[in-house]
Design goal:
4-stranded antiparallel beta sheet; 3-stranded mixed beta sheet; 9 strands; binds flavin-adenine dinucleotide; Butyryl-CoA Dehydrogenase, subunit A, domain 3; binds 3-thiaglutaryl-CoA; globular; Butyryl-CoA Dehydrogenase, subunit A, domain 2; alpha+beta; Butyryl-Coa Dehydrogenase, subunit A, domain 1; 3 domains
């Protein structure tokens, strides 16, 4: 018997630092997340103190330089952290990816020195929670159509509009918001909780990512000081660059969810007997396990190579789209298929498959849907843009 989920010995490609951070995050998930996640998902409530505990293990902004509170790690380390967190639950990985890739990354990459010093250390420690507002009620896959606007009013901007489906908006202290100026150019700015006219209504009744808070961002003539705008970016490539980082993290993260399902199903298949023998001895059950470990292995090799390219600043957005699309697809397929291996028990909260499968319905939709990523690959290989 070979129960490994490192079938091609990718561990040999990791540094001691990678393995150390993996062990730290794995221990955290086993101790802090696994015992409570089912209850929080059932009750549809966020995990208490999550951001501070993620900050304490170095999971927030791990690739941001140390002088701004990050850990200065490489992209493979970031991926490994996402993988271990999503082994626990996609809600936990979502919290870390939004804070790291969608809030800290744009502040670090596009922000002024004052903005970096003001926000990054608190975001890294989890003392401050951030969210990212790109999607709007009428503009999801096509963010370029956004209607949220800023108007120059001397020493400040007046912000009006609404964002929808925003991870952590009900908990956030700050929001990185993308809006069009009077010339129709997309700009990014930091909106702080407490600014008059800024509200964050919660979205209730989700069947997916139930341990994650999701909400809206509503702006009614919000006065945002000029020093809160990002000076160093204009246009849609601003938010899309943040998505490159988050989509990369998701490509790693979902492997963690798939591994959790695989390990549970393999163990169950060796213990559960029907017709006088373990169900793991039946060919049809072996097919499910063999296909799952094959797809996990292919996904691991894909993200490892992508991480190397990313470390060298050579990863293209199209490569990242391919990895996000493929890996979420294999993870959701594994969760659904391996749930069946547990029979009736597979629908119970004691086992993680239903929760992972339901979470992955969000993951296959957010950060660009499965079909949008296919069209990005289609555009890349043909040179013909199917969006216009
Ligand atoms: P298009 O004309 O192709 O491009 C406009 C400008 O952007 C540049 N660009 C990129 N830059 C960096 N990274 C990328 N991935 C880029 N893709 C495009 C492009 O070069 C161009 O630059 P320039 O200088 O010429 O102006 O744009 P388009 O309007 O045709 O749209 C393309 C499309 C559909 C691929 C894009 O808009 C898209 O990806 N749509 C999906 C939307 C999406 O992913 N939304 C995610 C919202 S955030 C979220 O879901 C968080 S979930 C968090 C969690 O809980 O984990
Ligand atoms: P639509 O764009 O309306 O798409 C509907 C369907 O049409 C999809 O199947 C899509 O693939 C298809 N479609 C659209 N255009 C095309 C096309 N050209 N060709 C073929 N098919 C097409 N956004 C944020 O900004 N910040 C967040 O923190 C955030 N968190 C989220 C958390 C959750 C739990 C969820 C569910 C979403 C979150 N989102 C967030 C929003 C997410 O990015 C969008 O839901 C996603 O981009 C899709 O947009 P939409 O829901 O408006 O679907």
């Amino acid at each position: 018997m070979n129960p490994t989920t490192d079938y091609f010995q990718i561990d040999e490609l990791l540094t001691d630092e990678h393995k150390m951070i993996r062990q730290t995050v794995r221990d955290y998930v086993d101790k802090e997340i696994m015992p409570i996640i089912d209850e929080h998902a059932h009750k549809h409530i966020p995990i208490p103190n999550l951001m501070k505990s993620l900050g304490a293990i170095g999971a927030l902004g791990p690739y941001i330089p140390e002088e701004y509170g990050g850990a200065g790690m490489d992209q493979i380390a970031y991926g490994i952290i996402m993988q271990e967190l999503e082994r626990g639950d996609s809600a936990v990985r979502s919290a870390a990816s939004v804070q790291s890739s969608l809030v800290m990354y744009p502040i670090f990459s596009f922000g002024s020195e004052e903005q970096k010093r003001k926000y990054l250390p608190k975001l890294a420690s989890g003392d401050m929670i951030g969210c990212f507002g790109l999607t709007e009620p009428n503009h999801g896959s096509n963010p370029n159509g956004m209607e949220t606007k800023i108007k120059d009013a001397g020493d400040h901007y007046i912000l009006n509009g609404a964002k929808m489906w925003i991870t952590n908006s009900p908990l956030a202290d700050i929001a990185v918001v993308w809006a069009k100026d009077e010339e129709g150019v997309i700009r990014g700015l930091v909106v702080e909780r407490g600014m008059d006219g800024f509200t964050t209504p919660e979205t209730h009744n989700k069947w997916s990512l139930r341990a994650s808070a999701t909400g809206e961002l509503a702006f009614d003539n919000v006065k945002v000081p000029k020093e809160n705008i990002f000076p160093n970016i204009k246009g849609l490539k601003g938010p899309l660059s943040c998505l490159n980082s988050a989509r990369y993290g998701i490509s790693w993260g979902v492997i963690g969810a798939a591994i959790n399902c695989y390990e549970v199903a393999l163990k169950y298949s060796l213990q559960r007997e029907q017709f006088g023998r373990p169900i793991g001895g039946f060919q049809l059950q072996q097919k499910k396990l063999a296909e799952a470990i094959t797809e996990i292995t292919k996904a691991q090799l894909l993200v490892w190579r992508l991480g190397v390219l990313k470390n060298e600043n050579r990863a293209t957005p199209a490569q990242i789209s391919m990895a996000k699309r493929n890996n979420v697809h294999i993870a959701i397929t594994i969760a659904r298929e391996l749930r069946q291996m547990l029979g009736g028990m597979g629908i119970m909260g004691e086992f993680p498959m239903m929760r992972h499968a339901a979470n992955l319905e969000s993951v296959i939709t957010y950060e660009g849907t499965h079909d949008v990523h296919l069209l990005i690959t289609g555009n890349d290989v043909t040179g013909i843009n199917a969006f216009v």
